[in-house]
Amino acid sequence: MHFLIGLTVAVACGLAAWATARLQTRWIAIAAVPFLLVVVAGAVFGLALYPFSDVFVPAFSLLAGVALGRLMPARFGPFVILLLVLSAIDVAQNYAFAGPPPAPRAVPDPHLVWINFRLALPGGHFNIGFADIALIAAVAENLRRRKATLALSLLPGVIGISLGEALLSTLPPNPPLIVDAIAASLVLFLTAGYVLTELAVSQTAANTS
Q: Quick one: average pLDDT of 105-111?
């Protein structure tokens, strides 16, 4: 169930780029502002509005991701460099804050729900950060602008989620901190998905030329 939800989220994030293809970037940025204000206020003041936060967090993240995908050059090199830098930051912050999981709470932390998209599941929950959502949408927008097919633009997110879930499912109960930090870094797996998709894009272009 957790894996299927992850794939659904990855596909939905990628589709956001295509759904907003005809909208001008300035309107996407303007639309993101009210969602950003609500998210910031909720995170700062700890507004206990879950599950309504699950509307504002992905809405802002998807709009911001599409805007980022348009602001970056429509080329592989600059975008993969951005992803590599963010991957290193993601692993570093996961390592810095690694440790035993927090004690189960009856209700989600009112601050953290504003920086994550969270779905309750039997025996646990699905959780993905707003930055991860934004980057999946940004990668799809980057590929869409480069004339990739819909399927190829969705591939990095699907590969990233799949690799992350596969690694998490194979971890021992108490893995080394660095392994735990890498496993928790979805940006790193999204980067791998983007690189693998670039190989598929290049192969497709070679076959059609």
A: 79
